[in-house]
Amino acid sequence: MLTDQTTLNWFAACNVADVPANGGVCVKYQETQIALFHFARRDEWYATQNECPHRKQMALSRGMIGTQNDEPKVACPFHKKTFSLTTGECLTGDECSIKTYPVKVDNGQVWIGVED
Length: 116
Fold this sequence. Notes:
It is globular and about 35 Å long. The chain has no helices and 12 strands. It has strands at 8-15, 23-29, 32-39, 44-49, 51-52, 57-58, 64-68, 71-75, 82-84, 100-101, 103-106, 109-115. The two termini are 13 Å apart. By secondary structure, it is mainly beta. The strands form 4 sheets. A 4-stranded antiparallel sheet has the order 2-3-4-10, with no helix packed on it. Strands 1-12-11 form a 3-stranded antiparallel sheet, with no helix packed on it. It has one domain: Rieske Iron-sulfur Protein (3-layer Sandwich).
C-alpha cells in the first residue's frame, strides 16, 4: 500500500502503441512481472502484479478487463477470479488480493511507479 512516505521509482514500461486497446501486456521490472492494461473504453491505464494468487500462474496480463458496478476489473484467463484494477481486491468473494501500481502516460510513453 502506498503512503505519503512511499518513494516511487518511475520506470518507462513501453510505448502507448505497444499495449492493445482494452487489453494487457506483461512488462518486467528487474525480476518482477507486471500486468499493464489500457482500458481504452474508459481512457484509463492500470498496472497490477501479473501472478494470479489463486494458482500462482503468471497470467493476469492475458485476462479480460471490464467493469463490475463501475469498478474496473480484470478476470484471470484460467480461473475467472476477478480483481479490482484500482485496489487489487478480489471481487469474487475470495480472501486473496493483488498488488496494484500507479501508471502515468507522458508523450506516448507509459510509466509505472514501483516502490523504491
